[in-house]
Specification:
Blueprint (H helix, E strand, L loop, with lengths): L6 H14 L28 H6 L9 H17 L1 H4 L1 H9 L10 H8 L2 H17 L6 H12 L7 H15 L17 H10 L9 H6 L9 H17 L7 H7 L8 H5 L4 H17 L8 H10 L4
Length: 310
């Protein structure tokens, strides 16, 4: 009998959800939402899968208390019956993703209903979602949701992050600007042109945070010299502002992958002190658990490679 991919991970995640929400307080029949959600009543563990599937389109009609209470039932249904629940997954994920335009307080109020173990369960569900169901959601939206849910759970004090930044700054203090004509590897047009305009003439210490975020998907246009030079700014922003830089940190980690074709050329640009600073950056990313770092074979492989530079 064939074993489902990641079956053990699914079971671990479901056990985590069960334990975290075991004693969740039922808000009462009148506290879960309007008439549209009247089919939901009683303990979340007792809601039949058929009820969840049949009423999958009414998620938005729950009160914040009702959504928070039945959330573990929704998460487990998605994990075990992803195809059958259909749009339920999209609606739940949308509810767990911060709006791009601030103002909607629904998610804030949901989070206020949850304790730390429950927040971890939701965060870990989001962290492994793309691994369990590849191609079923826009990666950028998912990573924004993971980042949002990770913020209140960070176990790396600001002082420790600042010390990492000092190590990076010290390693790059004597690095030289590569020159305007050595910034990008392609003609200055479209996204490559935007990248060049944002970075040309700027020391790495002077690049605005907004410029880093705006160009977060364009770093592959950098020459090896330019990437090496500005990596210090990218790592610093990722560590100090990881709750606001969206997928910037993930993209930086991707460019540090030894499996990339130009990685060997990039490595020749680092001195030993800089290599150690990169290792420390990746170790801090693992502690912060950027985007489910602890679950990602790719991120862990990258970290293990850089751990050689101690």
């Amino acid at each position: 009998m064939a074993i489902e991919p990641y079956e053990e991970l699914r079971q671990i995640l479901m056990n985590q959800i069960d334990e975290a929400f075991l004693n969740n307080r039922y808000p009462g029949d009148d506290g879960i939402g309007g008439d549209e959600v009247s089919k939901f009543s009683g303990k979340w563990q007792d809601i039949p899968l058929e009820t969840i599937i049949y009423n999958r389109s009414v998620i938005a009609e729950f009160s914040t208390e009702g959504f928070a209470y039945y959330l573990p039932a929704f998460l487990k249904a998605i994990i075990t019956h992803h195809q059958e629940v259909d749009v339920l997954a999209d609606k739940v994920l949308l509810s767990l993703t911060p709006p791009e335009i601030p103002g909607d307080r629904f998610l804030i109020k949901v989070i206020e209903e949850l304790d730390t173990k429950q927040k971890w369960a939701v965060r870990d569900f989001l962290a492994v979602y793309e691994m369990l169901f590849p191609g079923s959601i826009i990666s950028g939206d998912l990573r924004r949701a993971i980042s949002y849910w990770s913020v209140p759970l960070s176990n790396v004090p600001l002082g420790e992050r600042q010390q990492v930044v000092k190590t990076i700054e010290l390693a790059w203090k004597d690095s030289q600007y590569p020159g305007d004509d050595k910034l990008i590897n392609t003609p200055r047009r479209d996204d490559a042109g935007e990248l060049w305009l944002g970075f040309a003439g700027n020391k790495w210490q002077d690049v605005p945070l907004n410029t880093l975020i705006k160009n977060r998907d364009n770093f592959f246009f950098f020459t090896p010299e330019a990437f090496t030079y500005y990596l210090s700014a990218l790592m610093t922003a990722s560590i100090l502002h990881y709750e606001t830089v969206d997928i910037l940190s993930h993209n930086v980690i991707f460019h540090l992958d030894p499996d990339r074709m130009i990685f060997g050329e990039i490595m020749t640009k680092f001195n030993s002190q800089q290599k150690q600073a990169v290792r420390l950056f990746l170790e801090t990313c693992a502690k912060l658990d950027f985007y489910g770092f602890q679950y990602s074979p790719t991120e862990l492989r990258i970290l293990n490679h850089w751990k050689q530079h101690e």
